Amino acid sequence: MPKIIFIHPDGRSETEIEAGKTLLDAAQKCSAPMEYACGGNGFCTTCKCRVKNGRSNLSLPNEREENMGIEGESGDRLGCQAKVFGDAEVELVE
Ligand code: FES
Fold first, then answer.
1. Of all protein residues, whose CA lies closest to atom 3 belonging to ligand 1?
2. Helices and strands (H and E) in the chain: how many
3. Which of 27, 28, 59, 82 could lock onto 32 through a cystine, CB 3.0 to 4.6 A?
4. Is 78 touching ligand 1 by the criterion CB < 6 Å?
5. With a 6 A CB cut-off, is 34 part of the ligand 1 pocket?
6. Which of 3.60.40.10, 3.30.360.10, 3.10.20.30, 1.20.1440.230 is the CATH number of 3-91?
7. Which residues touch 47 (CB under 8 Å, ≥6 apart)?
8. Which of 45, 59, 62 maximizes ligand 1 atoms within 8 Å of its Cβ, making it the mutation to test the pocket?
9. Hey, is 94 helix, strand or coil?
């Protein structure tokens, strides 16, 4: 299973999660502090995060992300939309 590492202001959390789940699913599984004000529907950007390693192991940015100005080139993604297919390291910024 893909291993996801979250770096955040409180330290570091990591988990393994089934392929096809989202970064938000992974964050919730290991209690990493990723916000999700819109309930994971791609309408708020509170789950925005920066992928430091493993960008190519995630789904490509989808229409909801593009509508919110997320194009993925900087590594920024919406955690509720980015699906995991391999290992990744993700930074959570406040
Ligand atoms: S939780 Fe709102 S955009 Fe991801």
1. 42
2. 2, 5
3. 27
4. yes
5. no
6. 3.10.20.30
7. 23, 24, 34, 35, 36, 40, 78, 79, 80
8. 45
9. coil
Domain ranges of the chain: 3-91
3-47 pLDDT, tens digit per residue, is 999 999 999 999 999 999 999 999 999 999 999 999 999 999 999
| Residue 55 DSSP label | G
- Regarding the beta carbon of 36 and ligand 1, being less than 6 Å apart is answered yes
pTM attached to this predicted model: 0.96
